[in-house]
Amino acid sequence: ASSQRLEGGGGGHDGSDVDMIVIHTMQGSYSGAISYFANCGTEASAHYMVNSEDGEITQMVRESNTAWHAGHWETNTRSIGIEHEGYIDDPSWMTDVMYRESAALSADIAVRQGIPIDRDHIIGHVEVPGCPYSGGGSGCHTDPGNYFDWDYYMALVADGGNLSTGEIIGVVADSDIRYGARLPGARVWIAE
Predict the structure, then answer these.
(1) Rounded to whole angstroms, how far apart are CA atoms 152 and 161?
(2) DSSP state of 40
(3) How far is residue 69's CA from residue 76's CA, in Å, rounded to a whole number?
(4) 3-state class of 145 per DSSP?
């Protein structure tokens, strides 16, 4: 996938360390959201936008600056916001290439910023606190939506966006696989 930068201002993170990533769904198109966030009068922004069709990523705000994406100032000051093209009620927008490119981006951000790769630190917009008084949270937002596959996404993030799936068929033996006794019910762990 390709990427572009349309970085804007926004100021630092109010002295806060970045310790989370907030996942959003645009409720619209990639190009429409870029145009919307490029307009300073909207008083809204996100650090990154991810295209559903090909996984293209556009950076809208420098990571060192605060984006106005969470609807909750404290969360804004300690997070990086990633918007995904599409609509929460239409799973066809949740493409594999979008998941993979976004997960690779989240993994890269997490490594550089020292953010743990878990659901306490990579959250949905719906999980942001603060509603109804200061925006954010399930009372104000429902994204990334019920169709966002968190298990798949987090597995991809943990693997840097390169998760491979497949089927392993074989037997486990107590010594040489050819001559040893087979071990029924053996547990197998795969490393790397």
Answers:
(1) 10
(2) G
(3) 7
(4) coil
